[in-house]
Design a protein that fits this description.
This protein has about 270 residues and is an all-alpha fold. Helix 10 crosses helix 12. The longest helix has about 30 residues. It is globular, with a radius of gyration of 21 Å.
Length: about 270
Amino acid sequence: MTFSQARVGGDVEPFWRRFNTETWEPEWRSLVDDLDREHVSVSVRAAVDRLNAGLASEHERERLAGMAEWVEYLDDMATHEDATMACLTLESALQVGECDLIDKLMSIACDDKATHSNESRLLALELMRGVAIHAPALRSNLVGEHMETLLGRLRDDDTPSSVKGYALELLLAVVADDQEYQRDFMRRNGMSTMCSVYAKSRNVDVDLCERAGVFIGVFVGVVLPNGSSMALSDALIADAMVSIQDAIGAEERDAIVERGKHAAETSII
């Protein structure tokens, strides 16, 4: 991987940016804007092609390199000066065969036959989280059956703690701002699953316990209250609060929700 491949727009500055275009006539500045959009669009679509090529490789090392590059690429996208345009282009490019992409990543992350390494699983989960954040239209492919699969991995005692931790973060990105996805999560006993992860890891795995606690607190204290339908928000919150209380008690539930609110405010998640 080269540095230019891991950056939105590449590492080579377009020639027109060497000039002070702010002093140009409006029609020329408009042309520069068009060139900037095309430059970012070409970069993003080329990156999507590399991602698809990497995932199609039969060699795990090449798949790992491709996914690692994409995680870095999405990190750069978050702070890029043309982030909004880059994200829109990414969303459009990935929507061509979108289910295929998510299916491929899910097959790596939740491999029943253990043909993929733990590193591959973590990268696939991290990459899906990045896609869910930067291309929200694709989140719909991570609800339903795929959400059930992710929750199943969280319920499975044989799933490595690191994989569970990354799955928690992915699920939080998926349900962050869509009430239908939140309802799907609750309908699949998602909150009970999170409470089980929290309780089982409490005296065994401090990091996983903390991640599960943050998920519970942020989901109930921040995500659900911000839904577009207050009636649905209230109903989901009530269901979630009962599930948490049944699993760990009211006092600890309230403490976790407060910590979740604090985590969101201080950008810990």
